[in-house]
Amino acid sequence: MNTNTLIKFLIGALPVAPVAGDFVNTETAETSQSPDQAYENYDGPTMQEEISSHSGNIPALKGVNNINVKTGDNFDPLEGVYALDNEDGNITDNIEVTNNTVDTNTPGTYSVSYRVENSRGGYYEYVRQITVSQAETDPIAPVPPTEAQLGNTDEETTESSPESSSVIFEGTDDLTISAGESFDPKDGVSVIDVDGTDISNQLYISGEVDSETPGEYTIAYAVFDSFGDPAADARTITVE
């Protein structure tokens, strides 16, 4: 079976992508904005641009500026807050609120502590101040959108094809190993979604390598991106 055939076979064997309606509260969905509407007048940087501009081994935590909350209003410590890393991409899901003392029913100044860590053990911690008073609640800037959310994705990128997918497979180069050498198809392999999120844990892998028997073996990798579209890649493992 050649590589292209194996990729097509693996995509065909993937389970059907979940339908958003199966997981979304319909009452909320009727009133919530679509991504395009939410960012209709947005003129700031995209998530991809934010990630590209960041460097270093420590992740960045954004949207944690000090704000005022009007007495009695709701306060969500994660609203507008996001994190990024130059290798892991969008790691907002890694953010931990380690301390939150905010009582919006009582005027005063409170602290909220955050921590975020990347896959390499680099971490960043920050403490922001939240003031509760009779003044109006400060507006919160939205999390930067992806290119797709702004509608800037071109036709070649949006088509569901492994060759043109904007999902990035890393560590899937062809490899030569010696007979008897151990091989793990997941070792060093990662997948970055269109929004910069690491989705390596969602990989489907097909193919086997008999490291005791010299020859060429094909390993295929496939994954669904954040839009439910499949993407795949394959590599040849040569045992000498």
UniProtKB/TrEMBL annotation:
It is an enzyme of class 3 (hydrolase). Its EC number is 3.2.1.14. Keywords: Glycosidase, Hydrolase. The keyword Hydrolase applies. Residues 137-167 are annotated as: Disordered. One of its GO terms (molecular function) is endochitinase activity. Residues 60-132, 169-239 form the Pesticidal crystal protein Cry22Aa Ig-like domain. The keyword Transport does not apply. InterPro entries: Cry22Aa_Ig-like (IPR032179), Ig-like_fold (IPR013783). This is Chitinase. It comes from Jeotgalicoccus aerolatus.
